Amino acid sequence: MARVYLNFGGFYATEHGKRVEAWINPDWDDYKNIYDWNEAYRMYGQYYVEWFNSLFDTNLEFVSIWKPETFYMQVESIEVSVNERDASLLRDVAYTEFGDDYFLILNRAVRSRAGYLAEDYYLPIEQAMDRRLECVLDCLLEKLEADWDTYYYEVVVPQIPEEEAFQF
User: Fold this and answer.
1) What is the C-alpha separation between 76 and 90, in angstroms, rounded?
2) Entry pTM
3) Around 65, how many Cα atoms within 13 Å sit in the side-chain half-sphere?
4) Which partner for 86 in 4, 58, 113, 163 could form a disulfide, CB atoms 3.0-4.6 Å apart?
């Protein structure tokens, strides 16, 4: 199983962050300092992976929310485990969606060139293959994002039922 990241855009100043805030918004002014934001982000990540799985008929497994030490050049990502069947299926979907451009997109991300040293240049082959799979996921998410409208944010993560609401 490969472990890769769904680079969904993070929570800072995004619709994803607004969605998490909406879950806990009723008591925001009185309790904003005592909410367990990590738990809220974890739950959102799980819902996001479920949504992704429903679109592509895959079984990615949520592992964790990855947070950068600083937000200077990176934002949160969702770490997932991907089995070989799903990895193959997602590669096929990306190729079908992008055609020959798929290889251009992938090569642009994983090959060094003037002014850009590919991140996987020095990685062992297994990790380099995982990085390529992550690029496939990035391509698919970019395509989905281009087709999204504001209704998407209501569909991806449904309102949490009362019995599952955060208990602080």
Assistant:
1) 22
2) 0.74
3) 20
4) 58
